[in-house]
Structure formats: C-alpha cells, structure tokens
Amino acid sequence: MIAWQAMTQTVQPQPGDDKVLAGYRKSIDNIDAAIVHMLAERFRITQAVGEYKAKVTLPPADPNREKEQIARLRRLAEESELDPEFSEKFLRFIIDEVIRHHERARGS
C-alpha cells in the first residue's frame, strides 16, 4: 500500500499520457501474479493438512480456527485500509474450497 501511495503521489499524469496508465496496469499485473502464486502455495500446504487430517481422522472443518482466522484477517484489513467485509468474503471463499479439498481427501 505504501508503494502505491508513493507512486500515486509522485506521478503527475498528463492528459493522454498512456505511460502512466500502462505503469499502473503493469503493477496490477505483477500483484495479480503474486496473488496466484501465493494462493497456489497456500493450497499446497492446506492439501498436506487435509491429508494429515484424513490420516488421523480429524474433521475437515475447524470452526474455531476459521473464526480466529476471519477475525485476524479483518483486523489486518482494517490496518491496511481494506474493507474488512471484502477480506472476510475472500477468506470465506478460500476456507470453503479448502474444506471441500479436505472432504475429498477424507473420502479417498
């Protein structure tokens, strides 16, 4: 966020200056790529968790852990000036997918 603020404060776009927009878009593309790579790594780890849970017969979902994670991410979102509702929806989407994977691991 700080880098983005610095970039937006130092760049004075001129009408018709496509380089400014291209620079923003390049940054967005880089961030999107980082998000995909981080999600892939997160799912590799949660896949191992799912296999472990299946092996030791733990349930696929852990509501207490989910509640703690959602509260933690909401705090981080607020600190980062991101809508906490959005962060919760995003995390809930990820958690639901992880649980689905854990259920599949349990069934196999």
Automatic annotation (TrEMBL):
It is an enzyme of class 5 (isomerase). The keyword Isomerase applies. Gene3D superfamilies: Chorismate mutase (1.20.59.10). Its EC number is 5.4.99.5. SMART domains: CM_2. Transmembrane segments: none annotated. PROSITE patterns: CHORISMATE_MUT_2. Pfam families: CM_2 (PF01817). The keyword Hydrolase does not apply. GO terms for molecular function: chorismate mutase activity. GO terms for biological process: chorismate metabolic process; salicylic acid biosynthetic process. Keywords: Isomerase. Residues 15-106 form the Chorismate mutase domain. It comes from the Bacteria. NCBIfam families: CM_mono_cladeE (TIGR01795), PRK09239.1 (NF006691). This is chorismate mutase.
